[in-house]
């Protein structure tokens, strides 16, 4: 025995069947226990007053108080790892993104029908999400309130641009939705082209891109096969598909393709970073941010070895330090920066030679 106390889990869902199945899943895992279940946030708060949980499994559509309002209350009073249980729909994706922006650590998806069978089949995913959340450090980011950006026609601004010359590649996972919003919303409209892998399932990346596009000066879109990588444009890999950068003559563009998961993920950060290492070399900046596991660490090392400048988010500002830690351990990182300095690192690439900055902080 490890001697460590079990991770206590509070389950909040208005469906008795879901509460029952989730409780059985949690209790079946070594080192996890259900501290309580509740049919709505009001009952949950009463139970939390007596026994505060380590992790909360939270539905978003409930009576008396919705899950988002409950989550905001938790994060304001006592930040606690929260895993959202969301339906795999466009509406569910939009709501889940609101929850992630409000401080939720991660989410698991569920269909509208066949819930019991689905949850039982997804037991390992649920258990993994709970364990991952237990190691997270949720926090409220000092992010400006969302604002609608009325940008001029960006294609008109790009006339005459033959190539981006420089490419910024970003990889992130748990905690990344908040972190990416913080970084991208601080960028000016014209910066080198940016390609992003955020671990996220199908349907969710399109909603995520739209949300970011509404609060950023840069153009943010879910990538489509053949999209050009252009200054002022951010391309986010679609959920359930890998994304690679390639070069056609003087132009960078992306390939969106199917294939097996890499490091258990699709899209994979390693797939993106390795392609950037091959085609952009020392003209690239690689950034690895908050996330569980090691996806992206080897790809960042390949970028580093090809002359790219490489950056890792520091431990203090990460929700989960796993991915940056592994990259640092492999000596793939030139500089470690807090989240609030990463946007400045990106804007610096507009005027400074990337290779010359390899040894500077």
Structural overview:
The chain has 361 residues and is α/β, with parallel strands linked by helices. The chain has two domains: 7-134, Rossmann fold (3-Layer(aba) Sandwich); 154-357, Rossmann fold (3-Layer(aba) Sandwich), CATH 3.40.50. Helix content is 35%, strand content 21%. The protein has 13 helices and 14 strands. It has helices at 16-27, 41-50, 67-77, 90-102, 115-121, 123-134, 154-157, 176-184, 204-215, 269-279, 297-305, 322-329, 342-348; strands at residues 7-12, 32-38, 55-59, 82-87, 106-110, 167-172, 193-198, 219-222, 233-236, 242-248, 251-257, 284-288, 309-313, 335-337. The strands form three sheets. A seven-stranded parallel sheet has the order 8-9-7-6-12-13-14, with helices on both faces. Helix 12 (322-329) links the parallel strand 13 and strand 14 (335-337). Helix 1 runs parallel beside helix 5, helix 4 crosses helix 9 (204-215) and helix 10 packs parallel to helix 11 (297-305). The longest helix has 13 residues, at 90-102. The protein starts with 6 loop residues before the first strand and ends in a 13-residue tail after the last helix.
């Amino acid at each position: 025995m490890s001697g460590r106390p079990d991770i206590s889990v509070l389950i909040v869902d208005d469906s008795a069947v879901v509460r029952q199945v989730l409780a059985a899943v949690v209790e079946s895992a070594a080192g996890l226990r259900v501290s309580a279940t509740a049919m709505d946030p009001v009952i949950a708060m009463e139970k939390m007053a007596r026994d505060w949980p380590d992790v909360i499994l939270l539905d978003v559509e409930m009576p008396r108080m919705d899950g988002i309002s409950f989550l905001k209350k938790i994060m304001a009073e006592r930040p606690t790892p929260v895993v959202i249980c969301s339906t795999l729909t466009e509406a569910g994706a939009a709501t889940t993104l609101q929850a992630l922006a409000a401080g939720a650590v991660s989410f698991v998806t569920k269909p509208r029908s066949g819930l019991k069978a689905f949850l039982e089949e997804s037991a390992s995913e649920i258990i993994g999400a709970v364990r991952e959340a237990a190691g997270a450090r949720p926090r409220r980011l000092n992010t400006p309130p969302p604002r609608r950006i009325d940008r001029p026609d960006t294609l008109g601004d790009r006339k005459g641009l033959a190539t981006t010359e420089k490419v910024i590649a970003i990889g992130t996972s748990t905690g990344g939705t908040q972190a990416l919003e913080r970084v991208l919303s601080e960028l000016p409209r014209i910066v080198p082209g940016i390609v992003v892998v955020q671990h996220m399932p199908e349907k969710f990346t399109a909603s995520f891109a739209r949300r970011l596009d509404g609060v950023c000066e840069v153009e943010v879109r879910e990538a489509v096969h053949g999209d050009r990588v252009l200054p002022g444009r951010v391309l986010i890999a679609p959920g359930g598909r890998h994304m690679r950068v390639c070069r056609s003559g003087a132009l960078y563009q992306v390939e969106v393709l199917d294939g097996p998961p890499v490091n258990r993920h699709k899209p994979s950060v390693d797939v993106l970073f390795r392609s950037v290492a091959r085609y952009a070399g020392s003209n690239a900046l690689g950034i690895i941010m908050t996330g569980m596991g090691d996806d992206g660490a080897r790809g960042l090392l390949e970028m580093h070895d090809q002359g790219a400048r490489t950056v890792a988010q520091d431990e203090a500002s990460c929700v989960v330090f796993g991915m940056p830690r592994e990259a640092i351990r492999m000596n793939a990182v030139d500089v470690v920066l807090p989240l609030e300095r990463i946007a400045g690192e990106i804007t610096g690439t507009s005027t400074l030679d990337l290779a010359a900055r390899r040894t500077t902080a």
